[in-house]
Amino acid sequence: MWSFGKRKPVTYLLGEPVEDYPAIAPEVLRGRPLRITEIGEPVLHTPTRRVTEFSTPELARLIDDMFTTMEVAEGVGLAATQVGSDLRVFVYDLTDENGDRHVGHVVNPELEVDLEAEPEVEEEGCLSVPGAFEPLERPGGATVRGVDQHGGPLQLTATGYLARCFIHETQHLDGLLYWDHLSPELQQDALRQRDENRANVLAGRHEIAIELEMAPAEYPEQPPGK
């Protein structure tokens, strides 16, 4: 007898389907929660430099720490500038509109947006502007080309939510935040939301780090510029 059920979600690791991937990425348990830099800090507004040495303990540690920091902050993507590094690296772990999970990292990413894809307007936030979300139009498709931490070539093509993530994170490495694309009115609203919600967001990060039996990152009482 045939059985017609729902499609089983797929997990893609660096773009390739895998079986039995753990709920918490292995990198999370190897890394440390770091403080996420916030809008106004120079590292977020400065283009990054390309990685030239691969398969190093330092690069592996950075990626592990970024995964842990992303997990603690309940994020779906994180750029190296958001943990104070000037290297061209981002990590991601998200579930898309179809229920498929996408996990990985990209070193030296270069972005190509699909100008033929229908643009999409969605609420977008940023871990460096904690607690703020604003509507932002993004291209509906994008391709990221780069390498993994060992220098192996990567090409990841995405649509929808995953494409938005790739665009957001690659632009971080160019010194651009989603906030830079907003109108002055929405920028002010984002900062207002940040001021209202920041304390609760940081408290949540602290609690998740404790649940993972890790030392929480320390944040200043006030955001930069306050």
Under the CATH scheme, the architecture is: Alpha-Beta Complex
Mean pLDDT: 96
Tell me the fraction of residues in β-strands, as a range: 15-25%
Rg (CA only): 17 Å
Number of strands: 9
The CATH topology: Peptide Deformylase
What general form does the structure show? Answer: globular
Note the run of SSEs as H and E.
EEHHEEEEEEEHH
**CATH top level assignment:** Alpha Beta
Q: CATH H-level name... which superfamily? A: Peptide deformylase
Number of separate domains: 1
What profile does the largest beta sheet have?
7 strands, mixed
Count helical runs: 4
Distance between the termini: 66 Å
- Helix content range: 25-40%
Describe the overall structure.
By secondary structure, this protein is an alpha+beta fold. The strands form 2 sheets. Strands 1, 2, 3, 4, 5, 8 and 9 form a 7-stranded mixed beta sheet that branches. A two-stranded antiparallel ribbon has the order 6-7. The protein has a single domain (11-209), classed as Alpha-Beta Complex (Peptide Deformylase), CATH 3.90.45. A hairpin with a 5-residue loop joins strand 8 and strand 9. 28% of the residues lie in helices and 24% in strands.
In brief:
The model has no long low-confidence stretch (mean pLDDT 96).
Blueprint of the fold:
Elements: E1 11-13, E2 16-18, H1 26-30, H2 57-72, E3 77-79, E4 89-95, E5 101-113, E6 120-125, E7 133-138, E8 141-147, E9 153-159, H3 160-173, H4 184-211
Parallel strand pairs: 1-5
Antiparallel strand pairs: 1-2, 3-4, 4-5, 5-8, 6-7, 8-9
Q: Which structural traits does this protein have?
A:
single chain, alpha+beta, Peptide Deformylase, seven-stranded mixed β-sheet, two-stranded antiparallel sheet
